[in-house]
Amino acid sequence: MLRQAASIQADKLAGETMDRNISIGTILSELVAVLSASLRDFAIFAGGLGLLTAIGVIAGVTETESASLSFGYSVDASQGAASALFELVLLVANIVGGYWLLKQLLAARGLLHTQGNRFWPYLGMSILTGLGAIVGLILVIVPGIIVLIRWSAASGYVIGAGESVTDSMSTSWRATSGHSWAIFFAAIVVFLGLIVAAGTVVTVFGALNATLGAVVSAFIESAASGIFAGFVVAIYSLVSHDTQQLSETFG
Q1: How does the average pLDDT of the chain come out, rounded?
Q2: 3-state secondary structure of 133
Q3: Which residue of 27, 110, 148, 206 lies most exposed, with the fewest beta carbons within 10 A?
């Protein structure tokens, strides 16, 4: 009965969020507020991950394009085991660092209502949502984009509200209902803005020295990852409404 009541109340709260004025402008404003509230933590994340990547670039065990902005990590088979190992280290650092940054951003906005380690549920949720998005993108591009949008607040629910992996995904799906276009276009604005800014800055430094351009690109890519972590928290902040209380009452 409690689970059923929680589900009914969650649907009700999700419906209430549809009446809120969540637009491209409010999402971008909240993103600025989220990052501004925790600039030190953002700088630690971007600087630490950027430095690690830059070390790999200088050592020749990883590559970063000097005139582009990319996300994720790849391994060139021609680079051998050292490159593969370093890319694995980068991947782990990005996942662990991303979790830490999300937790700090949520806390700074008063959205962290759980204590203790939520890393493993976060990792499980990330794997499931990532696989779902990949399958959707492979089959037909549109479903992949849809699930990315509808699950965009899942990290907030699993870390901030302490929900389980599957509950965080389903709650995010309900909470973002009616706001998909605003979330989509806000993400496009952020992504294109980063592409233009990064392309301009990195191209200038790359023209001076290719290695310097690659090092600068490493820091910019890390900063971009941090900005999108802020984007996730901004979405959660806007759509979560009072579902944190729901989790505490019926959890």
Answers
A1: 83
A2: helix
A3: 110
